[in-house]
Design a protein that fits this description.
Blueprint lengths: L21 H15 L2 H11 L1 E2 L5 E2 L2 H18 E2 L2 H33 L5 H22 L5 H9 L6 H22 L4 H4 L4 H22 L6 H8 L10 H20 L3 H14 L3 H17 L15 E2 L2 H23 L11 H8 L1 H11 L1 H7 L3 E4 L2 E4 L1 H18 L13 E2 L3 E8 L10 H12 L13 E6 L4 E8 L3 H4 L3 H18 L4 E7 L3 E4 L17 H12 L5 E8 L5 E3 L5 E3 L5 H16 L2 E8 L3 H14 L3 E4 L4 H19 L1
Parallel strand pairs: 3-4, 10-11, 10-13, 13-16, 16-17
Antiparallel strand pairs: 1-2, 5-6, 7-9, 8-9, 11-12, 14-15
Length: about 675
Amino acid sequence: MVGQRYRYSKWDGTQRGFELDAFDVLAELTDDLMYHGDPMAALRRLMQDGFEDRNGERVQGLREIMERLREERQERLENYDLGGVYDEINDELSELTAQERQALEDRHSLADLELGSLADTDEDRRAAELAKETTTNKQMQLDMLPDDLAGKVRGLQNYEFESDEAQSRFDELLDRLRQQLMEQQFDQMAGAMGDMSPEDMSRMKDMMAELNKMLEQRARGEEPDFDKFMEEYGDFFPNNPESLDELLEDMARQMAAMQALLNSMTPEQRQQLMDLSNQLMEDLDLNFEVSRLGQNLQELFPDAGWQESYDFSGFDPLGLAEASDMMRELGQIDQLEQFLRQTSNPQALAEVDLEQVKRLLGEESAASLERVSELAKMMEEQGLIQNKEGRLELTPRGLRRLGQQALGDLFKRLSPDKMGQHDSDRTGIGHERSYATKPYEFGDPFNLNIERTVGNALRRSGGGTPVRLTPEDFEIEQTERQVRSSTVLMLDLSLSMPMRNNFLPAKKVAIALHSLITSQFPRDYMGIVSFSEVAKELTAAQLPEVSWDFVYGTNMQHAFRLSRAMLARQTGTKQIIMITDGEPTAHLLDDGRPFFSYPPAQETIEQTLAEVMRCTRDGITINTFMLDPDWGLRGFVERISAINKGRAFFTSPENLGDYVLVDFIEHKRTLLKGR
């Protein structure tokens, strides 16, 4: 098998590194996962808020993109005016009628010259007089044209032009307006309409009738023959829709955009456009089929935006074609915004038309949506999350990585002096390799490091074979002295923890401490007990998803009892680390039911201290970390310390992790030195 080749080049400042990977995403989600424990909810919030990649580049969230969509919509509405639809047509009609009037004046002047000529015959004179009368009548016809567009078009359709150029311009205008009106409603057919002959218009009418027939078949529960329809009329649809649903959805979107254009006009403008449309589409059968199709599509796609309207307040006039494009863009903006607002799963963003987003918002927003859509897939491929019965869950690998991330975040805050960067003798006879070596001395365990030993011999002899070893060449591996510790972390999950913003820091410390013990001290034991009204044993897999209890009560007595039972099954030094923000307000009665009282009842205090005494008799040290303690908690913890001789730390959410990790590591160092 041929190995894969890689090409390397010198960094010149222009190359881009890896912008985002699954571990970056997990790092972004750490606090959210710590707080809620739900990967999908965390991904959803990340999708909404956005983030920065490792290059410091902004990946836009859905809120930011939707705000940009609203800004784009507002900019269009504030800059443009739909009155241009009529201004453009009116201007062209005025220009060609002016051209026609000039032709009439020229013909009238020529007739006057002919009448003034003495050489004219009677026949020439009669022809000149008839020309003058005709031009006068035509000028009167032009003067009597109605003010509304549809009336002007109807009058000019019945008018016999003197100017061939004006006639040609009028015919071209009508063809262009017909095509624009059809494109407005049926954008898919734009490329197929071109210059349509009467036969083409008749065939289009047949196509519309067949389309309405298929819609009525579907309404009756029958399955229309879409393939046969496309064989006969497929040339009308250059986009080649693959199904009847796709074709109908596109047509509904276009017809709804046309209706939105009408809805956005003043009543007078709307009536003029409708009249103009009816005048241009003289074939009543075609008008009937188009109207029928619109009704059928409105019933089939009621949410396509048929009632939508826009309040244009700008001054830049839009022609009919520009207004058509503008309404399509506004419709796309509305549909995209609605889709993003309803999206709850990043993977659903794969359905977004990125080319459309690029046209509306630019490259940056399109790239952000593409990257956000890949978040869940990226994490699944890296084995950090898994889809279990439709629900995303952290995998064991994801749990380990989450713990490492939490541990890394806490260690970053610690300065070297806090971590006690002083030398300590950690080597000796043991079972764990430290990967450090030393020259062999008499009395050392003979854990020979072959690589270093042979290397020493080669350096001494200068190379060659055979390699001859002497005692001076021997180099042995050192091992670490191992001291087993057993720790139970008691985590307060009473309602006061989130109310005082203590929940997330405490949970992060729990996950970080578990990661520290399992990665650095694999022979040690760590158990986890949560307590509120009652206490519960937790596994490491449950820890990311655990949340506070919506009940009152801080039952330390039950938690101490449960922790003591867990440590009874372990060996080595034993300790309990308790993280809390309140004094005990609950304990278990003899029948196992929890009893709650605030302020704390004397019985609760006595029952809790009795469990502290039992822990002390069993050789269990209790170290307590108090978050924002009041005087009641301080006094109670001082009584625990007096009985147990453990330590008490008065701390805050900001430095809780510093205290817990430093104390745990110092505890391990003390044990190592004691051996």
